[in-house]
Design brief:
Length: 371
């Protein structure tokens, strides 16, 4: 259609994971473990939920563009208000970055099979999108540095990375940064920051407040607020000032902002969520490995498995679905041989490993590709 630019025509709309209800109905199941979207199996932070209830009284009023949350974040992270932005999820802010900083002949550089949300946003701008392969399922930062050219405007790094769950280390990032010109904006997407922050090798981007680094974080994961859409970012005030120009004036919504503020003080919920996740990662990793499935060591709230081929990945995905376990196929990311499994409740994780064992046996029985 002549009205639609070719780079938009070429996009595929984002496909959200199936809901537990639709799987339950389709397969006539009583129990479904939804382990497809890296959500918090404990639900939402209770303090955040209570704050949303309280915010309902002001629903007739326009929100203040995230100002209250920005003030709280500025105090909590010891930066100026001018260095903080809040938005409708970290993807809302990412979308602003694409709009604010990319010109037509700029290029975006990242890893192959990067977080799908970023892939879609960057490609929708119609600029050149370049990638380098993973090395051992980790960002190959030296290779990325070598690919920066005169047109490179944005380098996108997710740490921990979705879908691999891997991190790059402080030393690797510092070495990489030395090769990045100041005219290149580095997006450090730390959606899974809380899960990795206690790893001594992990480079907390708040220690790297360089003028060309923007940090993105979210309340969607460890605080359990994915449905509310609230995220935040830190950067040099010039970057924030320009991002605020393109941000939709009234995002985030008032309930979302209230939830974010309350969630930040919910240390108890954070601790529970991290404990459950650590247990889940250990259980899923060892359980899958015992079955003979290759698992990439994860620093996030999901693990990625590498199967012998696309056919096996599809069949296991379908077999799991029929048993009430929903995982994420990674074909759309660009990794057709892989499946991603989010940690769930202890019961979900047990169901998942049992279903994997049965599915793998069923596939192995009918294929000589599976070792
Ligand atoms: C790496 C990464 N960045 C950003 C997001 C999106 O977060 P939000 O819900 O804050 O938009 C996700 C969600 O899955 C993610 O995996």
């Amino acid at each position: 259609m002549p009205l639609v630019p070719p780079y938009i025509e070429a996009l595929r709309p984002y496909e959200a994971g199936r809901t537990a209800d639709s799987i339950r109905r389709q397969y006539g199941l009583t129990r479904v473990a939804k382990l497809a979207s890296n959500e918090n199996p404990l639900g939402a932070s209770p303090r955040a939920a209570e704050a949303i209830r309280r915010s309902l009284e002001g629903l007739n009023l326009y929100p203040n563009g995230g100002l209250d949350l920005r003030e709280v974040l500025a105090r909590a992270f010891e930066v100026k208000l001018e260095n903080v932005i809040a938005g409708s999820g970290s993807e809302g802010i990412m979308s602003g970055i694409i709009r604010a900083f990319l010109c037509d002949d700029d290029e975006v550089l990242t890893t192959e099979a990067a977080f799908i949300g970023f892939q879609v946003l960057a490609r929708s701008r119609g600029v050149k999108y370049r990638t380098v392969p993973y090395r051992d399922w980790r960002y190959d930062l030296p290779a990325l540095a070598g690919q920066i050219n005169a047109h490179t405007k944005i380098v996108y790094l997710a740490n921990p990375n979705n879908p691999t769950g891997t991190i790059f280390t402080r030393q690797e990032f510092e070495e990489f940064y030395r090769h990045v010109p100041e005219r290149v904006l580095i997006i450090l997407d730390e959606a899974y920051f809380e899960y990795a922050k206690d790893n001594p090798q992990y480079p907390d981007s708040m220690h790297y407040r360089y003028d060309n680094v923007i940090t993105l974080r979210t309340f969607s994961k460890v605080y359990g607020l994915a449905g509310v859409r609230i995220g935040y970012g830190f950067a040099h005030e010039e970057l924030i000032r320009n991002l605020l120009k393109v941000k939709l004036p009234f995002e985030p919504s008032s309930p979302a902002q209230a939830a974010g503020i309350a969630a930040l003080s919910d240390h108890e919920f954070l601790r529970h969520s991290l404990e459950l996740n650590a247990r889940g990662i250990e259980y899923l990793t060892s359980g899958l490995e015992r079955i003979g499935i290759r698992v990439v060591p994860s620093q996030a709230n999901f693990v990625m498995t590498v199967l012998p081929g696309e056919g096996e990945a599809c069949r296991i995905f379908e077999e799991l679905l029929a048993q009430g376990v929903v995982v994420r196929p990674l074909r759309a990311f660009g990794l057709p041989d892989c499946l991603r499994i989010s940690t769930g409740s202890d019961e979900d994780n047990t169901l998942c490993i049992e279903a994997f064992r049965r599915s793998y046996a069923a596939i192995a029985g009918s294929s000589n590709h599976v070792r």
